[in-house]
Design a protein that fits this description.
Keywords: Membrane, Transmembrane, Transmembrane helix. With 239 residues, the chain is mainly alpha-helical. It is built from eight helices and no strands. Helix 2 runs antiparallel to helix 4, helix 5 runs antiparallel to helix 6 and helix 5 packs parallel to helix 8.
């Protein structure tokens, strides 16, 4: 992805930027937080009682007695990832309170993405059985989720803020699959199974959410990168 941008620059993280835009002038942060909370509430709605009989992922096969505890742990760590990623993409917090931003990032990676993805790898064979197209979407999602997050961490370790931003926003897009997939399930559920069969429903729900998120974020990143290049070019003296 970096080949489409200008050569990455290295910048040293600085202290709080007192000239940062006020948080209330970022009108998207409150809806984003509401979406994250809604996704968490919806996800926990069938697990809050810790009763395997009402789990939304069914059935619970006897040959996998640890499936439900692993599932609860996966959801718990996933909840941490969904909530902390909102803090990660909040520009006001990053500029005014960089230490909080960094600590939220550490919690996001160590307490959210890493354990949630690892537990998902254990769950997939228990939930889906032999590999199917729906399972494949989860595998690709998990690999991309861990990869973009790891590359984002590596970039900031090398003080490459530009690529850190690129990879972590990509990680954010994948994290928000927790909302977008469930949103698609709600939208298309009235059409299932009379209009949309099981395979089509699995494709839409399994792939549609995170792929759409990722494409939108990549388009936005390319657009903002082009806009910055145009702004820099406008400041150059005419030859």
């Amino acid at each position: 992805m970096s080949t489409t941008l200008q050569p990455p620059t290295r910048s040293t993280p600085s202290g709080p930027d007192r000239g940062a835009t006020a948080w209330w002038r970022r009108p998207w942060i409150l809806p984003l937080a509401a979406v994250a909370v809604a996704a968490v509430i919806y996800c926990w709605s069938t697990y809050i009682t810790f009763d395997p009989r009402v789990a939304s992922v069914a059935p619970l096969p006897a040959e996998h007695p640890m499936k439900y505890p692993i599932l609860i742990a996966h959801i718990t760590f996933g909840t941490i990832a969904v909530l902390t990623v909102v803090l990660q993409v909040w520009p006001w917090l990053r500029r005014r309170h960089p230490r909080v931003h960094r600590w939220a990032g550490r919690v996001y990676v160590v307490g959210g993405v890493a354990p949630s993805a690892a537990l998902a790898a254990l769950l997939l064979p228990m939930i889906y059985g032999p590999p199917v197209f729906g399972w494949l979407s989860r595998v690709v999602l998990a690999v991309l989720w861990v990869t973009t997050t790891a590359l984002g961490v590596l970039a900031i370790k090398r003080r490459n803020v530009r690529m850190h931003r690129w990879f972590m926003l990509s990680s954010f897009a994948l994290t928000m699959d927790a909302f977008s997939t469930r949103f698609l399930q709600i939208v298309f559920m009235p059409l299932y199974p009379d209009v949309i069969g099981r395979d089509a429903f699995m494709i839409i729900a399994g792939w549609g959410g995170w792929v759409t998120n990722l494409l939108l974020v990549q388009a936005w990143l390319f657009w903002t990168a082009r806009r910055r290049r145009a702004a820099r070019a406008a400041l150059l003296p005419a030859s």
